[in-house]
Amino acid sequence: MAAGTHRRDRGPGANSSRNDWRSAGATFIALILASAILVSGAPAEKHLSVYSVAANYSVPIVQREGRDYVGLLEVLEPLGRVSGKADGTRWRLRYNNVEANFTAGANHAQVMGRDADLGGKFFLENKRGLVPVGALNSLLPRILGGPVTLHELSDRLFIGSVATHFTASLASDDPPRLLFHFSAPVNPSIANEPGALHMTFRREPLVGPASPTLTFGSKAIPSASYSESNGSAVVTVKTSIPVMASFSNDGRSITVAATPTPQAGSAPIPAPPSPQTAAQNTPAANAAPANVLPAAVPHYFAVVDASHGGDDHGESLSSTLLEKDVTLALARSLRQELQSRGISTVVLRDSDANLPLDQRAIFANADHAAIYIALHAASSGHGVRVFTAMLPFGSDDHGPFRSWTTAQHDWLSPSQSTANAVAGELQKRQLPVKNVAAPLRPLNNITGPAIAVEVAPQGADANQVMAPDYQQLVTSAVATAIASLRDQLTGAQPQP
Amino acid sequence: MIPRHLQIALAVLLAAALGLSIYAWHVRKTVAATPVAPVDTRPLAPPVTGPTEKVVLYVAQDEDGTLRAQPAQIPMPSGRQQRAEELARALISLYLEKNSPHVIGAGTEVRSVFLVDPGVAVIDMNGAFADSHRSGVLVEELTIASLIHTISANTPNILRVKILIDGKERETLAGHADLSSFYEVAAVDQLASQLQAGQ
Hints:
The structure holds 2 protein chains of 2 kinds. By secondary structure, chain A is an alpha+beta fold.
């Protein structure tokens, strides 16, 4: 009995002891995990986009006690004269003639002697004051003396009447075009994916229409929607056809239109194999006839392609000069030179937009341009390089059918003639020239005469490639050569 | 009521966790403050020893954008694949020298070269090769032409070449030269002739 009692007494005690040890073990593991999370990398950095008449900028958002905070000095510095002075737990802010007093840990502040609710604790760190992002809506109007609108969920702050509005309307062409009109110039990043085109406005104070979704009753372009997140506004256009965006009216208008399709009787356009269809299609089905004549009348004589753009910066020629910006300036200069010689020209990327290589080739092929000219810039070496396509091994070539990667094959001869003429014209202007083939996309995907021109400085200063005089020297030589080949290029035929 | 020995154990564990956190924080700061080499420069394979052989390397020249044939005496193993690898390594070593005529990024290494019949060579370079390569059409083209032409000119019967980075396909070398397709050796040979002629 005594032994039984002893066992009974001991049994629950042992269980309790085991449970306690389990609890302690779990606590220990939890602590270790918490420590690991603490010392591991911080989550992705958030920013508050601020739009004002003085400047559009962004400031980092930090997390304190699970809430979003910003430094008040960082928000106000671009807007006017601002200073902060710490005295123990107190912090005095002076913006122009406005004075505000904050106390670390307090939920309220005094602005010009009047109480202001912060909606959360004030933090004082390294003599800089942090306030909850949500507090800006009530705090800033008192400090700045004007209206402020905070889109707290998307971290966007509008100071004053700076918002850019837009309208969207569908032109009933065939295929239809969607026309966006903006109240101020815009320059969004544009990205395409199957079924949708996204325009992301990071620097523009774009605000949405009354209804975030606009419907157009078109099968090709059924709707467009507006959304905001992480300091950006995004307009997404739903499409059932491949589309491109083009800018006009000094950046106040964007037209989303179908990528041009070949005219009746013209050669089918080789399309890039997609991962989804590649497995289903036979190589021959993916290929395109290479020796069929293209349409006789091109929409544009010349397609000028400003290489790179958007997230693709190309080479960083200097700390402040990106290749994508140089190529855009060169493209606009070349367009002007060509048009002044009576040559109709389109610039493929006339803004800082993402444009995939395949889409550049599809546009040039569909338009049956007489000449495609891709522009590049480099800091290494000297002078100008003129390239024609160096074709890769065409694993999908079948008789007269060419794969997408070797679509240029039958046009190499007119391409090389054009490159020779351009190189000759550049040499006449005393510019060092190199004229070779290059494994450079999308030259190999173009079904027509195609060259690429890479502009490097004449001396050691990479910034020369952005100099208008130098750019004009190069582009006028290219335009003169193209103009001299006008008749040959118009009648250029594929040579299998 | 938690027994005293458990309270002590929990306190010890808490102290240990705190100590570990402080130590981990200190280590993290130390690592962040310690300058590290931008790339792993350790060699991937031991140097080859043995009888040397005269080969021709096709060396890119940044100054005038050309390729120049440069005789070299390098140790060459007997295997065809190992020979191709050594040729690539000899060329890369030359580019990594202080006064190289064609600068490539520190840490560039040839991981391996595979010869697959019939006539296919796969050159597998490490990540530093592409990540640290200068961007530009001509400068990238010179690297590729020199690498492929050096291997194909010294190793008969190679018809096509594929360049991989860390064993994987990459779109371009540094934003321009296409790495997504197979290079036709005949086309590269023609390009090499153009570049040697200084066109």
